[in-house]
Specification:
This protein is an alpha+beta fold. The protein is built from ten helices and 16 strands. The strands form three sheets. Strands 1, 2, 3, 4, 5, 6, 7, 8 and 9 form a nine-stranded mixed beta sheet that branches. A five-stranded mixed beta sheet has the order 10-11-14-12-13, sandwiched between helices. It has a two-stranded antiparallel ribbon with strand order 15-16. Helix 6 packs antiparallel against helix 7. The longest helix is centred in the middle third of the chain and has 18 residues. The protein is elongated, with a radius of gyration of 20 Å. It starts with a helix and ends with a helix. About 0% of the residues have low confidence. It binds adenosine-5'-diphosphate and magnesium ion. GO terms for molecular function: ATP binding; ATP hydrolysis activity; ATP-dependent DNA damage sensor activity; mismatched DNA binding.
Length: about 325
């Protein structure tokens, strides 16, 4: 069992950033209004995610740690629009690759459970005001071969920051703090975004200003288009806005950050007449559609998607962006 867990775990947890992704997604699924991520040594020695969500009842803590016990897969729901989690294997995987401690409060009772090497201890009473604290220490301590493949603390922290910022864009009404606590104590805040207010567009605009800067926000066109029940929303920068050679392309499908060649290609195609090949259009775009029209289970950790109607999606993006650019005088 422990060996199987470890192999499966490697699929979900490739590096500290993938652990952070799973933990922050869980906090979002729990309805958190504020999420704090503390990192030491690029996540290699400590990842701690604290949220103010609905928590886990003490008696449910062992269940949350059993593989697939919480799986929401019913064969059709692979891209649920309302929750990030669906595989029920993140926490068991994290427990197999590091020293995991979960402290949580639901209602009046708070409990704590510790997992090490895939086996968990019994639940103990704990003191916690609200929500959940998940702490993962010494990632890959039992598999030195994997540890060897991790990059420098700085590079791993960069990847963590990228994951947090993408999820912060996906959920502008939620507050996010990322701290580097490598030196101990309170550490240093490396990213902070307070909860945004207003409707979807206002909140996203505020969040993008926070993450990509005021200059992006001032040069961003609001995008809102629909074709055959596939909706495209978000912001795309004017071609005159430049981040040099830096890539600022943030793509989301049904609320999840994704990396997808089709979407990136469509974005490039829309700007083809305005940007030279070495410049990348900057945009944060959200596609919302019926979950049946897109597959997300290509790989648990890679956030790849496969659209059933790629031509339709590409056409929607290219025409919506070209219209917005034309309306803005391009
Ligand atoms: P999944 O998210 O796919 O359901 P996970 O292994 O990530 O699987 O989490 C298992 C379960 O533990 C979740 O379904 C949820 O019920 C509970 N859980 C995990 N993290 C939290 C959290 N931060 N707050 C409340 N419940 C949580
Ligand atoms: Mg999860």
């Amino acid at each position: 069992e422990a060996a199987i867990n470890r192999i499966a775990a490697g699929e979900v947890v490739e590096r500290p950033a993938s652990a952070v992704k799973e933990l922050v997604e869980n906090a979002l699924d729990a309805g958190a209004g504020r999420i704090e991520v503390c990192i030491a040594d690029g996540g290699k020695t400590l990842i701690r995610v604290t949220d103010d969500g609905h928590g886990i009842a003490p008696e449910d803590l062992p269940l949350a740690l059993s593989r697939h016990a919480t799986s929401k897969i019913d064969g059709t729901d692979l891209l649920n629009i309302h929750s990030f989690g669906f595989r029920g294997e993140a926490l068991p995987s994290l427990g197999a690759v590091g020293r995991l401690k979960i402290t949580s409060r639901a209602g009046a009772a708070a409990g704590e459970i510790v997992v090490s090497g895939g086996a968990h201890e019994t639940v103990r009473p704990a003191a916690l005001g609200k929500g959940t604290v998940v702490e993962l220490r010494d990632l890959f301590y039992a598999t030195p071969a994997r540890l060897k493949f991790l990059r420098t603390d700085r590079a791993e922290m960069q990847a963590i920051s990228d994951v947090v910022k993408r999820l912060a864009m996906a959920e502008p009404h939620v507050g996010f703090t990322l701290r580097d606590v490598s030196g101990g104590g309170e550490g240093r805040v490396t990213f902070r975004a307070d909860p945004e207010t207003g409707d979807m567009f206002e909140a996203l605009h505020g969040r993008l200003a926070r993450i990509l800067g005021a200059e992006f926000a001032e040069n961003a066109l609001a995008i809102d288009a629909e074709r055959e029940d596939i909706r495209l929303t978000g912001y795309a920068a004017l071609p005159t806005y430049s981040r040099g050679s830096a890539v600022a392309q943030y793509l989301f499908v049904n609320g999840r950050p994704v990396r997808d060649k089709l979407l990136i290609g469509a974005l490039r195609g829309a700007y083809a007449d305005f940007l030279s090949r070495d410049r990348h259009p900057a945009a944060a775009l959200f596609i919302t559609c019926d979950p049946h029209r897109v597959d997300v289970n290509v790989h648990p950790a890679k956030s790849e998607v496969r659209f059933r109607e790629p031509g339709l999606v590409r056409g929607l993006i290219v025409s919506a962006l070209r219209h917005a650019l034309a309306d803005a005088g391009h």
